[in-house]
Amino acid sequence: MGRPRDPRVDEAIRTAVLELLVEDGYQATTIQAVARRAGVGAPSIYRRWSTKAELVEDAIFPSTDVEYPEPSGDFAADLRAWTRLLLRGLNDPAARAAIAGLLTEYHRSPAQYDRLVLRTEMPTRQAFRATIEAAVARGTIDADTSSDLIYETLLGAMFLRAMVRGERGALRHADDVAALVARSALAR
Question: What are the pLDDT digits (tens) for 146-163?
Fold first, then answer.
């Protein structure tokens, strides 16, 4: 069974990944560079992550400690909370530095992308679905409203904003997108 992992080592590695992404970019954030920065041996990293892409994903998209917005009874406010959550994750400097490299990795290895979907995307979509189901139950939006379509619309808009424009005016943009989508989904 072996010794339990030291959470201090995990945190040192995560911090090193985030710092290197911001300072040097995805390509230069190698396992060896992370090990040097974290003050650990490369084998310590490889025992935890089998690839650089997995290491970077876990650093920028942690699957724990995510607090998803709860349905509040105000559909527009709920979508605003979701757009801000999505934007916050995508607009993080380390995430912005990593995403282009990760997209290349996903193109090369669809299994790598499938891992991300199972670990982070599916739980996020399930939490978002609760927002849509609550709005349908209240009669705010039509019963045939697609939670996946609304989620992907929000995610796509926030992704494009984060990658192209960055932080300046981003919260206003997130709020405007949420308001537009909320209006378009209202029950007729």
Answer: 999 999 999 999 999 988
